[in-house]
């Protein structure tokens, strides 16, 4: 008995309709990457393990898919190491490559390797799949695409402003109104930890703070206490739990809280510049807000932190994010090259557009015209007509065999074809063809000598 086919958990097959819809998102994002001056690059689907390992923290390392060495990979493992049955110790002996976990670290590697060929600041975009050995769930997959835009070689805050504009422009064209772009700064988080006396517990403090909207103020305080943060420090941080008002009001409150932290004050100044510049330029449809609890990417972000939330009422995690990193290329030996970048979460954006019914009408229509097949001579005439239509950019096809007409019409209906052409013996003798509108049933006759009349009617 044949084995029932299956695919790995966390991966997907895509139907023609889904591919067309995904390509629609790709095309919108790519076009605006280009209008903002970003250049495309691509990197291999797998990298040397040493390029990826140790760059994402312990959790990230566990989620990297390792590739077994070709040939007899166990041959290089000595008996003593093999007898330990310790996968962590044996991995380096049997696997030298791994599937890329994201596009950022490979990009840093690319910049270092090609630094003498690049013009800085270098604005790059990259749209490619990545792989993570994560637990699959709604909106989270083991194989998915990332759409990244980064600028390296400039520490100007105008780059942050442009990336916010890029988000706003893309989501406006996708008609995704009500998107919220959240903004924070790593220096502010470091400054807060400093003034409350928890500088050495920065990660624990910010990870707990990041959960404020999920577990509430009491839950955050409880977690901070469990991580060794004192009640005195938590009390000093109390204003953060109820930071309200306009963006300007929140920045003023942070200014007061961080008056004794040079780093924290610098973070507030950076956010204020970005906010004031955006206000002067205006936004199309997105909303920009300060969110001091935002703490993503603490392992390498050093300045601004971005996260994009779907419109209210849509149950979905972030649909984009990014931030400023002052020395990401330093992990590969190129020091002091500042960069900033953002990513679009294609798969989640797809789910949001689907839920809100925002894809263009008939986007998945793969055929505009289908010529029915009435036989050998008629079929050849229909093929000639189909060829003419295709040369004019019309999505046209001919049914491949002279099957029963009801079967051919059923095929047209299943393919959602708006126009069906009938070119039978009578039409061939009259040098004409009949076009049937499949929506209203109307039929109209055109001359084979003047197909342009039909083309102009589409």
Automatic annotation (TrEMBL):
<keyword id="KW-0067">ATP-binding</keyword>
<dbReference type="Pfam" id="PF13393">
    <property type="entry name" value="tRNA-synt_His"/>
</dbReference>
<dbReference type="Pfam" id="PF03129">
    <property type="entry name" value="HGTP_anticodon"/>
</dbReference>
<keyword id="KW-0547">Nucleotide-binding</keyword>
<dbReference type="GO" id="GO:0004821">
    <property type="term" value="F:histidine-tRNA ligase activity"/>
</dbReference>
<keyword id="KW-0963">Cytoplasm</keyword>
<dbReference type="InterPro" id="IPR006195">
    <property type="entry name" value="aa-tRNA-synth_II"/>
</dbReference>
<dbReference type="InterPro" id="IPR041715">
    <property type="entry name" value="HisRS-like_core"/>
</dbReference>
<feature type="domain" description="Aminoacyl-transfer RNA synthetases class-II family profile">
    <location>
        <begin position="1"/>
        <end position="400"/>
    </location>
</feature>
<dbReference type="InterPro" id="IPR045864">
    <property type="entry name" value="aa-tRNA-synth_II/BPL/LPL"/>
</dbReference>
<dbReference type="InterPro" id="IPR015807">
    <property type="entry name" value="His-tRNA-ligase"/>
</dbReference>
<keyword id="KW-0436">Ligase</keyword>
<dbReference type="InterPro" id="IPR004516">
    <property type="entry name" value="HisRS/HisZ"/>
</dbReference>
<protein>
    <recommendedName>
        <fullName>Histidine--tRNA ligase</fullName>
        <ecNumber>6.1.1.21</ecNumber>
    </recommendedName>
</protein>
<comment type="similarity">
    <text>Belongs to the class-II aminoacyl-tRNA synthetase family.</text>
</comment>
<dbReference type="InterPro" id="IPR033656">
    <property type="entry name" value="HisRS_anticodon"/>
</dbReference>
<comment type="subunit">
    <text>Homodimer.</text>
</comment>
<dbReference type="InterPro" id="IPR004154">
    <property type="entry name" value="Anticodon-bd"/>
</dbReference>
<keyword id="KW-0648">Protein biosynthesis</keyword>
<keyword id="KW-0030">Aminoacyl-tRNA synthetase</keyword>
<dbReference type="InterPro" id="IPR036621">
    <property type="entry name" value="Anticodon-bd_dom_sf"/>
</dbReference>
């Amino acid at each position: 008995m044949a084995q029932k086919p299956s695919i790995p958990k966390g991966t997907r097959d895509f139907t023609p309709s889904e591919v067309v819809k995904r390509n629609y998102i790709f095309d919108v994002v790519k076009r605006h990457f280009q209008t903002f001056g970003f250049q495309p690059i691509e990197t291999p689907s797998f990298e040397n393990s040493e390029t990826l390992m140790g760059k994402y923290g312990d959790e990230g390392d566990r989620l990297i898919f390792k590739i077994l060495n070709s040939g007899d990979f166990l041959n290089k493992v000595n008996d003593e190491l093999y007898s330990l049955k310790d996968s962590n110790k044996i991995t380096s002996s049997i696997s030298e490559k791994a599937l890329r976990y994201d596009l950022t670290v490979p990009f840093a590697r690319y910049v270092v390797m090609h630094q003498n060929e690049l013009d800085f600041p270098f604005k790059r975009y990259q749209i490619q799949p990545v792989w993570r050995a994560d637990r699959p769930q709604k909106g989270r997959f083991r194989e998915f695409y990332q759409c990244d835009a980064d600028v390296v070689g400039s520490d100007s805050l105008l780059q942050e402003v442009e990336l916010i504009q890029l988000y706003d422009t893309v989501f406006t064209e996708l008609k995704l109104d009500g998107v919220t772009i959240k903004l924070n700064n790593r220096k502010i988080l470091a400054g807060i930890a400093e003034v409350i006396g928890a500088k050495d517990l920065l990660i624990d403090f910010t990870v707990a703070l990041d959960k404020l909207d999920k577990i509430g103020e009491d839950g955050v305080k409880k977690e901070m206490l469990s991580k060794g943060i004192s009640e005195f420090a938590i009390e000093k941080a109390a204003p953060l739990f109820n930071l309200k008002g306009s963006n300007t009001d929140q920045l003023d409150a942070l200014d007061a809280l961080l008056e004794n932290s040079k780093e924290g004050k610098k973070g507030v100044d950076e956010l204020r510049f970005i906010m004031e510049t955006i206000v002067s330029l205006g936004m199309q449809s997105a909303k920009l807000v300060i969110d001091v609890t935002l703490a993503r990417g603490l392992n390498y972000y050093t300045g601004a932190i971005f996260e994009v939330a779907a419109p209210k009422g849509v149950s979905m995690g972030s649909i984009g994010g990014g931030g400023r990193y002052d020395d990401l290329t330093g992990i590969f030996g190129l020091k002091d090259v500042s960069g900033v970048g953002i990513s679009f979460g294609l798969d989640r954006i797809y789910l949001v557009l689907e839920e809100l019914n925002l894809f263009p009408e008939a986007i998945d229509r793969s055929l505009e015209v289908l010529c029915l097949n009435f036989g050998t001579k008629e079929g050849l005439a229909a093929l000639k007509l189909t060829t003419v239509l295709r040369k004019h950019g019309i999505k046209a096809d001919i049914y491949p065999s002279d099957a029963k007409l009801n079967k051919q019409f059923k095929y047209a209906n299943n393919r959602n074809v708006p126009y069906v052409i009938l070119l039978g013996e009578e039409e061939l003798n009259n040098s004409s063809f009949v076009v049937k509108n499949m929506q209203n049933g109307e039929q109209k006759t055109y001359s084979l000598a003047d197909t342009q009349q039909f083309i102009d009617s589409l």
